[in-house]
Structures are given as structure tokens and as C-alpha cells.
Amino acid sequence: MKVGLHLSSFTNEDQDNFVKELDTVAKMADKGGMGLLTVMDHYFQIPYVGQIDESMFEGYSVLNYIAGKTHDIKLSTMVTGVIYRNPGFLAKQVSTLDVLSQGRAMLGIGASWFEREAVGLGFGFPSLKERFEMLEETLQIVKQIWSDDNGPFEGKHYQMKETRSHPKTVQLPHPPILIGGGGEKKTLKFVAKYATACNLFAQLGHDQLKHKLNVLKSHCKAVERDYNDIMITTTGSIKKDTTADELLKELKDLSSLGVDHAHFSIQDVYDLDLLTMVVDEIVPAIADW
Q1: Distance CA 8, CA 20 (A)
Q2: CA 181 to chain centre
Q3: By the 8 A CB rule, do 260 and 232 touch?
Q4: What is the pTM (predicted TM-score) of this model?
Q5: Which residue intervals of 47-198 are DSSP H helices?
């Protein structure tokens, strides 16, 4: 089992030195043996994390910066909203990250949900049905671009004359694809059909997570996919008052469900205290789970 770090905020009291603090956090996570570092892929800060006018950097720009500061940790958005990028451009961004990081990129993707930023910046916000149609076509397109098939793609939402991208990714046949969300009729079905990994909210609790994973197993069976080939990940949070023992207990429960990678946002991560606890106490304790 591994733990990962999700950066959900780009705001700190010492904002003038923020880039230096981001550098420090990324290097600590990398050297401390964390498995995955992800960043938000939003354009406005989202509710429940911060205020609408707080800093929100473009996700892939941040990941490319972090790639140059780290060596081992895998890198992804958590997760890219499908409506914000043309699929060909998205494949190019992830391919670039994979080459610059020497094979550490993942594609994290989902159906999008934050209407305010979409409408605010003029992306438009199609119906949920259309967003899921766009998500499936995008998954089909990126897999075709990352294959030897350079031919056209004709879909309802996207049409491409050539699915061509160079340079090729370092990871073959392509970087891992993670789909975020626990929707049982569409999202988990897409995981079984197209993805390398799923991501569920840890706060769902043991019983609901178990249920979601059983649904995923049924979708895998329907498409003759080996469930064990899918990396099971969760996203949770570590609060200021969280102790190492409490976190280990939560991780033990997640491990019992078959979770391979537990991902966390850390409150006031740039203060480093909780991140230090994770890399010094948690990572070594679960290394052989």
C-alpha cells in the first residue's frame, strides 16, 4: 500500500514565497516515498476548500514544474474535467508530462462538475448526459492517440482527421488512466472498460466503499476484465489534529478493502508538520502492507 499527496490549495500566508514552499512540499513527498502527487484541475478555487478568489494555478503547468524538482513520485491531476480541454490537446499535455518526468505521468479524468467556473470562463456546461458522452469519447480518443492507430476518429462530440501525437510516451502502451468518481451506472462502468485506476472518496466509509468496489467488480465481470488489474485509490483528508495512530487505523481499514493507494489532502500542508508525520511515520509503517 502507498500514500499520496493531493494539493488542493495554492494559497498560504507567505504568498510571496509560495513557489519556494511548493518546491519544498513536492521534494518532501518525493524523497519521503509517497507514491503519487496530484494537483487540482480547476480554474476557480472550489467551495469547501477555499474562497473563489484564492489562487488556482493551471494544473499541468504546475505538474511540469514539479516534474523538474522530483525524481520518483508519480504525477497527475485529481482530476481533469473533460469539458476543459480538447481530447487531442489533453493527450499532448499528458504525453509531454510523461516525457519530461521520464515516465511518471498519469491521466486523471472525470465528467466535470463545477458549473460556476465553466460558465464564468465561457467553456459552457453541457448536461450530465452529454458530459458523460464526452468523457467516453475522450477515453477512446486518448487510447487511440497513444496506440499505433493514427487514423480518424468520428464521434458525436469530437471529430479528428488524424489521431497522431509525437513524441511517444515513455510509459507503454500509455500512461495509467485514472477515472475519478463513484457513479455506479456510468463512472465505474468506464473504469472497467477503459481505465487503469479508479478513485473514490474515503469519507464514504467502509460499507459504502465496499459496495462501490463490488459494483466495479460486477462491471469488470460484464466486460471480461480482471478486477485485480485495476488500481484502487481513495482520496481523503488529514486535519490538523489527526494523529499517526488515527491515520494508521484508517489506512488499515482501507487496506482491508483492497485499496492500493490512499491519497490525502493535508490541512495547512505548507506548514510541513503533518507532511513530516506522514513521510517519517506513516510511509515506513505501511510499506509492506
Answers
A1: 17
A2: 10
A3: yes
A4: 0.95
A5: 59-67, 87-100, 115-120, 128-145, 187-194
Residue pLDDT, tens place only, 138-168: 999 999 999 999 999 999 999 999 999 999 9
Instruction: Give DSSP secondary structure letters for 68-93.
Output: TT-SS-EEEES-EEGGGS-HHHHHHH
In what helix (H) or strand (E) does residue 213 lie, and over which residues does it extend? helix 206-222
Contact (CB, 8 A) for 235 and 202:
yes
CATH superfamily of 2-286: Luciferase-like domain (3.20.20.30)
pLDDT tens-digit profile of 50-95? 999 999 999 999 999 999 999 999 999 999 999 999 999 999 999 9
Nearest CA among 69, 5, 68 for reference residue 36:
5
Residues 186, 176: Cα–Cα separation, whole Å:
19
Pick from 60, 118, 57, 58: nearest CA to 92: 60
Instruction: Tell me how far apart the alpha carbons of residues 274 and 240 are, in angstroms, rounded to a whole number.
Output: 7
Radius of gyration of the chain (CA): 18
With H, G, I as helix, E, B as strand and everything else as coil, classify residue 274: helix
